[in-house]
Design a protein that fits this description.
This protein is of the alpha/beta class. Helices cover 45% and strands 13% of the residues. The protein is globular. The N terminus is likely disordered.
């Protein structure tokens, strides 16, 4: 394996992880499957071209060169940041428990804050004055009780939460590179969090946030936290996406109720109707987490993809699996569990075929562990 969860990785191992996750068609789920299959990032990098070819790819897969990864590491160090990989002790324990945790997490500021228990606090960008004041007070009270507050450094509720939590500890998960301040109006807040808290991102330096990046950022906010609190959120907002991720990750969801006449309250009221815990202050959050046994820092466990021994796969069995999987897949996303039920082959074989097809650009992965034929794929 690349590294045990109890030892720090070598620089070479860290570079291999960075090269692999920055390579074409490799995302967090694919990364896990590659390491589970090949045992190390270096072995997976060697296997990528052949896997893509077997999946039907006609052109060469773009694999991140070593010098490009070294340049990114050097740029992170020049910024005062570092790349933390999922197998090392400095990686946030709560985040290791989610299925699509980023293999490499850029950390700027005081990384030791990530070792403490955390609550996410998110909400509307166009928040009311009362909503901002409440978010700031809840964040300050959580900090005084020993909790770190995570949010997304957006304007509105996010900014108020960070400001309230600066003294107690706060983490900002951002959608772009660690060196990109977004929105620009939060430049002073960025500097304050950098000085007193931590900023994290899975994106390369220089990445300007795009719409598709924010859901990925939201799953980091909820994944870092034992519970997610929503203060003001319109229906179909990013804050509700964060709350949904929290539920899918097995974390607690809290919401502040509001007037039915205020559109910014509809998202929170909907969450409460769906089973979220109604809260009005930090004490409510702490009490609810205590009752559920969720006030301790999550225990660090070695991710399964780092601990298993891969089984050998027979090529004739793989050929049969390829035919069955390709026949069952279509343009509509299909749950991998359903694919396994309908196939007459083992789960490791199906996983390998999906890995080949994804690296070939012939399938896409969708939320909820679903896959579909890629539109205009290789």
């Amino acid at each position: 394996m690349d590294a045990s969860p109890k030892t720090a990785p070598s620089r070479a191992e860290r570079l291999d992880w960075l090269r692999l996750i920055r390579s074409e068609r490799v995302g967090p789920v694919t990364f896990r499957q590659l390491l589970a299959r090949f045992g190390s990032a270096s072995a997976a990098l060697e296997a990528l071209p052949e896997l893509a070819r077997r999946g039907g790819r006609m052109r060469a897969l773009k694999i991140t060169p070593k010098d490009v990864a070294e340049a990114e590491m050097a740029a992170l160090e020049a910024l005062g940041a570092r790349a933390v990989i999922l197998s090392e002790p400095a990686y946030p324990a709560a985040l290791t428990a989610i299925d699509d945790a980023p293999p490499v997490l850029g950390v700027l500021g005081h990384g030791h804050i990530l070792e403490r228990r955390c609550v996410a606090l998110v909400g509307a960008r166009n928040a009311s004055a009362n909503g901002r004041r409440l978010a700031s007070r809840i964040a300050a009270d959580l900090g005084a009780a020993g909790w770190v507050v995570a949010s997304g450094m957006a304007r509105g509720i996010d900014a108020a939460a960070h400001e309230g939590a600066l003294e107690g500890g706060t983490v900002a998960a951002v959608a772009g590179g660690l060196d990109v301040i977004y929105p620009r109006e939060n430049a002073a807040l960025y500097d304050s969090i950098k000085a007193a808290g931590a900023i994290v991102s899975e994106m390369p330096l220089g990445t300007v946030p795009q719409a598709r990046h924010f859901p990925r950022r939201n799953r980091l906010i909820s994944g870092l936290s034992l519970g997610t609190v929503v203060v003001e959120a319109a229906p179909r907002s990013g804050s509700l996406i964060t709350a949904r991720f929290a539920g899918e990750q097995g974390r607690e969801v809290f919401a502040v109720p509001g007037s039915p006449l205020d559109p910014r309250a509809r998202g929170c009221n909907h969450l409460i109707r769906e089973g979220a815990t109604l809260i009005e202050n930090a004490a409510d959050i702490i009490e609810a987490l205590s009752a559920l046994g969720g006030t301790r820092v999550m225990e660090r466990k070695a991710p399964e993809f780092l601990t298993g021994a891969p089984l050998p796969l027979d090529e004739s069995d793989l050929s049969l699996a390829r035919r069955e999987v390709e026949e069952l897949l279509g343009p509509a996303p299909l749950a991998v569990d359903e694919l396994l039920r309908q196939c007459q082959v083992s789960a490791p074989l199906v996983s390998m075929v999906l890995l080949e097809l994804e690296l070939a650009g012939r399938i896409d992965r969708h939320p909820g562990n679903r896959v579909a034929i890629a539109a205009g794929g290789e």
